[in-house]
Design goal:
- It is a single chain.
- The chain is mainly beta and 736 residues long.
- The protein contains 4 helices and 47 strands.
- The longest helix is centred in the last third of the chain and has 6 residues.
- The relative contact order is 0.12.
Length: 736
Amino acid sequence: MLIACAYASSGQGIIQGSVVDEHAQPIVGVNVSVAGHNIGLVSDRSGRFNLKNVPTGENKIILSFIGYETQTVAVSVENNIVSKVSVVMIEGLTQLSDVVVTSSHDRPINTLSSVDIKLRPVNTSQDILRMVPGLFIAQHAGGGKAEQIFLRGFDCDHGTDINIEVDGLPVNMVSHAHGQGYADLHFLMPELVSYVDFDKGPYFADKGDLNTAGYVAFQTKSRLDKNFIKLEGGSFKTGRIVGGMNFIDNKKTNAYFATEYFGSEGFFESSQKFRRFNFQTRINSRINDRLSLTAALSAFSSKWNASGQIPDRAVEEGIITRFGSIDPTEGGNTDRFNAYVKLIRSLNNGGSWENQVYAVRYDFSLYSNFTFYLNDPVNGDQIRQIDHRWIYGYKSRYENTSSWLGKTLKSDVGAGFRYDDVNGVTLDHTVQRTFLNHEQYGDVNELNANAYVSETLFLTDKFSINGALRFDYFHFAYRDRLAQSNLPNVGKAIVSPKINFTYQPSERMSFFVRSGTGFHSNDARVVVVEGGTETLPRAYGVDVGGEFKVTPTLLLHLALWRLDLDQEFVYVGDEGIAEPSGKTKREGIDLSARYQLTSWLFADLDFNLTRPRAKDVPEGENYIPLAPVISSVGGLTVRRNYGLNGSLRYRFIGDRPANETNTVVARGYFIVDAVLNYSRKSWEAGFSIENPFNREWDEAQFDTESRLQNETDPVSEIHFTPGTPFALRLRFTKYF
């Protein structure tokens, strides 16, 4: 449907439009271009696009998105006239030829994650993080604890240097009992993930605290493709049931709910007794032609036991096996409740205004024992960390494409706040989960108010520049309940500038230069004790690279990058603090390749090489413990609408220093996984195999000083959590 209306400006014409699927749901990230002209953008979060400076006369716009049939729509453009178009995309085969290289600062590699989710071994949404090129995760304290994250030469711990969101809600927990930025994604069901937006470096104005190495933003489905129920079962007494149903489904409103129950005894000798429950409901309503509303509620609860990290010597001396434990009473539980309401208004000028309010309730308790009998030779060194909090937040965002000095200008302006009310962040000394005494006990109140502006100017059809500025203000308060005192509050502000360039000499290649600063905040308990020093250390980044469509079915991404930090934080678990460890620098190469061999066979490869080093430290003593140096993932994938689908994949991470002198080494690994499904219209059956060759590998490793109960002197060496042995899981899904 085409509608023409007057537009009071001079120059060439404008095409405004929206793109939806067959169920009238907006599609995000569709490449929209004008045939014969190097004019193109991608659809925004409302599925809208706004093409400026389109030549007058008969034009054809081409809309392409992986997993959908490419659409070509004829549009008549007149001077000083807005032409409006609404396009319905039809699901089709996955074709790499539908991926378009543009000069709009939108990376095509990012869009591939939405179609990869189904055909990779995914036990939780935490596993979806592995789809970010160069990102590795490690579980080291039972299936319910947030995974350790590695990216771009960072040991991000559980989230210190990576910003993670779900539907605009923060996942990272600041000033958390178990480390700054702790990010637990287990509340998100993989079946509900629509797509994953990600990128690396501190170059994005809408991402603030903890966005140094990169960010990952999950978006859940606005509507279930089909009602479903799925049953899974497999090795180690693992079982899962998950189901979802659209209970309102009409042209204006749709709503669904989904729920999950998961249980596993785990592959350790001491049973994990891992149990997880999830529930989510979401409603989307188009109130009128210009206003839409989304509201969602979710609830999550998990409980588990853990075998923890065990020392090499205990296995080598035959005290325990690889799957044994020194303290089998480790473990914990987590509960999280999320609620949000989002309003998106389409404006007369073709822009959109989005407002979101949210509230999160979070409860956490974790028992750990890192050093066994090092500090307390009688009771042992087990600790309990507790975190109870409410998080309240608001976000406002305005986006529009306009003209400035005859050039296309894309504007993105936002503001908001996040307030963490933590009642009882605690570190206790325990023995076999029995309380002995408080080590730390207090309340945290932390506010982050922020605003940003990001402007992208298309100077020519081939060259664009993005300039952005972000402002963040933090207010830290801590009440020490043990000392019955309120330490002086601390307020700090930081401004983060960014500037990025993109040059597209042809439809098959696009070059970029990205630069900017970001930051990660410190724990409020440390900030107030230190009087505000080392509160918001900066990160300085630059990326130089390009996207290359070598052939219609071969896509490459290459980047050379460097990232410097004014201050790193190292979490010290048994003391409950984040210690500063000095300035650092990282330099690296990222390479990603996607290749479609046939209409149904795809290959992908991600290779990452990094040189992480500490600054102002003598050579040979400047290694950064656990920082990845070389890593790679890749595989072959079969994708069909019906029939056999599957993938065979590998992941590799090389040996890396475990201490500052590289005299202790964290061992690398090479692991293979496989998935095979048989799909029909009304059902699907399949299986996945993790580690089919049953290789021995260490998933998490630390150079830790500890003492066993029978030892007189402490020993510093590698402590590890073994990786998954051969594991088979069967699944059956019924659609209705």
